[in-house]
């Protein structure tokens, strides 16, 4: 199936639309599923990796041929922390580009009326102006520790823009900041900073360990957004936004890694000592998003950092037996 004519005009979302969330069982996708349900969208579908390998072009086309979704949220991606990005860059580049090419092209060919592609603020230049505006993308060198992932995600984001420009497809993109919450990855070999801290302090408290080792110097500044807030912003953009430029999703507030560690330590109730392994990399020194555009559209976050850490920790405690460890 090939769709080549230019599409004019935008169709409104309605609650009977069939919505496909790619990556529906991950941190981001599961939150978007919860938000869609909360907002009255009940015809929502997902496929596990075992059911549908998004890197397989024919399998993706067969899925779109059979299901004909009206709306697609592309939240599926190969993700990981500094160690995973550093040690398997070819896998990060190849798998993410395969997923994006297959899904975006099928959204065009099968005339999906709206696609939301999720990028990440870690794909902005390493030394981007702070706070980072949307137009900072592609203006400088990337952070080396996640360059492969960043290049792949930039390609997907730009592809959405090009399909909109050439064919009029209603493909939009967003750029979430650092996320955390239910269904995060707590495997220390590939987890991001927040779940890694929660896991380390949880284990140390349980084992009565005198110290917890954290990576780097603790000086980098980061912004953190509770994932259910991010999901609500995604649904808001699906309903209200059709622009060509991607939209940052964040809090516009930042905290040092050392202060974050103290916050997590306090929430967990661990009373030992934090030891910083300064031989390990810090990553980007500062990464704060400019959320002016999102605020002007009419959305802002609701969950404070302390409340979000508490919610994430409570979920982890309740699900430690089956969380990604």
Structure overview:
This protein is of the alpha/beta class and 325 residues long. 41% of the residues lie in helices and 14% in strands. It contains ten helices and 13 strands. The strands form four sheets. Strands 2-1-3-4-5-10 form a six-stranded parallel beta sheet, sandwiched between helices. Strands 11-8-13 form a three-stranded mixed beta sheet. The longest helix has 21 residues. It starts with 18 loop residues before the first strand and ends in a 6-residue tail after the last helix.
Quaternary state reads: single chain
Mean pLDDT: 94
Radius of gyration: 20 Å
Largest beta-sheet characterization: 6 strands, parallel
Query: What is the rounded distance between the termini?
Result: 42 Å
Lateral arrangement of strands in the main beta sheet: 2-1-3-4-5-10
Roughly what fraction of the amino acids lie in strands? 5-15%
Q: Which regions contain 5 or more consecutive residues with pLDDT less than 50?
A: none
Q: Report the count of strand segments.
A: 13
- Number of helical segments with 4 or more residues: 10
Order of helices and strands: EHEHEHHEHEEHEEEHEEHEEHH
Helix content: 40-55%
Explain the layout of strands and helices.
Blueprint: E1 19-22, H1 27-38, E2 44-45, H2 57-67, E3 71-74, H3 82-87, H4 89-109, E4 114-118, H5 147-167, E5 171-176, E6 178-180, H6 193-207, E7 211-215, E8 221-222, E9 224-226, H7 227-240, E10 247-249, E11 255-256, H8 257-268, E12 273-277, E13 286-287, H9 292-297, H10 305-319
Parallel strand pairs: 1-2, 1-3, 3-4, 4-5, 5-10, 6-9, 7-12, 8-13
Antiparallel strand pairs: 8-11
């Amino acid at each position: 199936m090939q769709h080549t004519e230019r599409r004019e005009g935008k169709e409104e979302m309605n609650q009977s639309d069939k919505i496909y969330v790619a990556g529906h069982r991950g941190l981001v996708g599961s939150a978007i599923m919860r938000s869609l349900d909360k907002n009255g969208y009940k015809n929502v579908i997902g496929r596990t990796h075992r059911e549908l390998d998004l890197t397989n072009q024919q399998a993706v086309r067969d899925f779109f041929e059979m299901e004909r979704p009206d709306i697609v949220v592309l939240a599926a991606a190969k993700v990981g922390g500094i160690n995973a990005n550093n040690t398997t860059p070819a896998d990060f580049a190849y798998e993410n580009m395969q997923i994006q090419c297959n899904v975006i092209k099928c959204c065009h060919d099968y005339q999906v009326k709206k696609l939301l592609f999720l990028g990440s603020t870690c794909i902005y230049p390493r030394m981007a102006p702070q706070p980072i505006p949307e137009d900072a993308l592609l203006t400088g060198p990337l952070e080396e520790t996640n360059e492969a992932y960043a290049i792949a995600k930039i390609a997907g984001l730009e592809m959405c823009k090009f399909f909109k420009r050439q064919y009029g497809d209603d493909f939009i993109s967003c750029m979430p900041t650092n996320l955390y919450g239910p269904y995060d990855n707590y495997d220390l070999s590939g987890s991001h900073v927040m779940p890694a801290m929660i896991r380390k302090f949880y284990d140390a408290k349980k084992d009565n360990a005198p110290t917890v080792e954290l990576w780097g110097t603790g000086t980098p500044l980061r912004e953190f957004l509770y994932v259910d807030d991010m999901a609500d912003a995604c649904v808001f953009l699906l309903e209200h936004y059709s622009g060509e430029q991607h939209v940052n999703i964040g809090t516009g507030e930042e905290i040092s890694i050392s202060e974050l560690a103290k916050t997590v330590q306090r929430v967990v109730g661990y009373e030992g000592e934090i030891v910083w392994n300064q031989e390990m990399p810090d990553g980007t020194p500062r990464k704060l998003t400019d959320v002016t555009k999102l605020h002007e559209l009419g959305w802002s976050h609701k969950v404070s950092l302390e409340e979000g850490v508490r919610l994430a920790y409570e979920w982890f405690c309740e699900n430690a037996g089956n969380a990604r460890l």
